[in-house]
Write a structure and sequence with these properties.
322 residues; alpha+beta; 9 helices; 7-stranded mixed sheet
């Protein structure tokens, strides 16, 4: 359902999240590029250099954003990307499309056969994950950004907490928390537990994705609406301690990204179409809808996501989640 607001937003899909938090980082980058750029970690070799990458598409710019429970600039054996999003900024500058790729998506990973897409990060860091995403989507990735989930705690607390709405009382046995139906005010530790829950949710990881989206939306709204300079400073310092980008991202790149985000009239969340879930050995996996994914990513390459959204009619609000 679309709602007209002063700053029009379209929230679509059951996407994945956490990451990269384009909305969150976008709110802070305007100040970040002026005063905090030196605190942003850059990682060399994040972008693939070999031949065979997709050609640039019909316009716009694409960022691969990940979220991880470990510092994403230090890949290690067993470290996986907990959230993966392809973010398309339209060529006209009026639309930002955040497209989640389920972390358990069962896809070909170059040199490693078919496995979960988040394993690509463990096998070969950002470069292999980007190669995998480019092979899957046919979309060229222009930049990479990652966020350590631990930074959520500090960023949330810096803003004085955020509000989310839960539709049904749910108990999380992993974190021993009961989420009461209704509006919840989350501090940093509560927010981290909220976005990590998948136990006792009807659709498991897919519902967790929706919770992550709801949290990120709330965090972004709070950050964009904050006028208290002390809170803004604390928030951006927390963000810069947690974010990592590829080494082609300059302060000018960040400045332009911030400007584009701040003047964007439409932000939307989508998810790569899913055919269902299954088992591969002892692993629970997500099977992607090949035809649906092809239609979506063709629209991204052609910079025609608005038309895709109008045709598909899929919708998922982050105003209230399970």
């Amino acid at each position: 359902m679309l709602r007209n607001r002063t700053r029009r937003q379209v929230i679509i899909g059951c996407g994945a999240v956490a990451l990269g938090l384009l909305l969150l980082v976008g709110g802070g980058l305007y100040l970040l590029q002026r005063a905090y750029d030196g605190d942003v970690r850059r990682i060399a070799g994040a972008l693939p250099t070999r031949a065979g990458r997709p050609a640039p598409g019909g316009g716009g710019e694409n960022w691969l954003l990940i979220g991880s429970d470990r510092r994403p600039d230090i890949p290690s054996m067993g470290a996986r990307a907990d959230a993966i999003m392809l973010v398309h900024l339209s060529g006209r500058g009026d639309r930002v499309s955040v497209i989640a790729i389920p972390r358990d998506g069962w896809v070909p990973v170059p040199g490693h056969g078919t496995t979960k897409i988040n394993a690509a990060f463990a096998f070969g860091g950002p470069a292999l994950l980007i190669r995998t995403v480019e092979q899957l989507t046919g979309v060229r990735v222009d930049h990479y950004a990652a966020l350590d989930f631990g930074g959520f705690v500090q960023m949330t607390d810096a803003l004085g907490g955020v509000d989310v709405t839960v539709t049904k009382t749910t108990y999380d046995p992993k974190h021993e928390r009961t989420w009461q139906a209704g509006r919840q005010h989350l501090d940093g530790v509560e927010a981290l537990d909220f976005v990590r829950q998948r136990w006792n949710l009807p659709d498991g990881d897919l519902d967790r994705i929706k919770r992550q989206q709801a949290f990120l939306h709330a965090l972004a709204e709070k950050a964009l609406g904050t006028r208290n300079p002390i809170r803004i400073d604390r928030f951006i310092r927390a963000a810069t301690r947690s974010v990592t980008v590829d080494d082609s991202v300059t302060s000018g790149t960040l400045r332009e990204l911030a400007n584009r985000l701040l003047r964007t009239s439409t932000r939307e969340y989508l998810t790569t179409p899913v055919a269902g879930t299954d088992q591969r050995g002892e692993q629970s996996v997500v099977l992607l809808d090949d035809a649906g994914a092809r239609a979506l990513f063709t629209a991204v390459r052609d910079d025609r996501v608005a038309e895709y959204v109008a045709r598909s009619g899929a919708g998922n609000t982050v105003d209230a989640v399970r």
